[in-house]
Amino acid sequence: MTYHRITLEAINLEAANPNDLAKFWAAVTGVEPSAGGDSVYLPPNGPGGFGMFFQPESEPRAARQVAHWDLTVPWGSRVAEVERLLGLGATHKWDVLDEVPHVQWTTLADPEGNLFCVAGHPPADHQGS
User: Fold this and answer.
1) How far is CA 28 from the centre of its chain?
2) Under a CB-based contact definition with an 8 Å cutoff, are residues 33 and 26 in contact?
3) 54 lies in the same domain as 6
4) Each residue of 96-118: pLDDT tens digit?
5) Which pTM does this prediction carry?
C-alpha cells in the first residue's frame, strides 16, 4: 500500500463578519485577503503554511468550540507575539507555562471568539528549567 504525505490546505471558518475576521487573520499571518462573493480567502504565508477561508455563518454559533489551532513561534518570542496579537484585537484567555517541559503556550481568542494557541518550544538544553 502506498501512503501519501497529507498536508493541511486550509482552515474553513464561518463568521458573523467574514471580511473583518479575515482582516484580523491577515494581520496575524502577514498575507493579503482575497474576497470572492460572500467569502474571503487568505493564502498560505509560505511553504508549509495553510490557507484560511471565511464564509458567512449558516446557523448560530455553537456554544462550545470543539477544535482550535496551535501556532508556533520561535523560542523566546511568544510573549512579544502575544502582545502583537492582543494589539490586533485578540483576547487573552490563559497561559500554560510549566505544565510540560517541551512547550509553553498562551491561549487567545480571535475577535469572534475562536480559540487559538501561540506556542514556543524550548531548545533541549532549556527543557525543564
Assistant:
1) 8
2) yes
3) yes
4) 999 888 999 999 999 999 999 99
5) 0.85
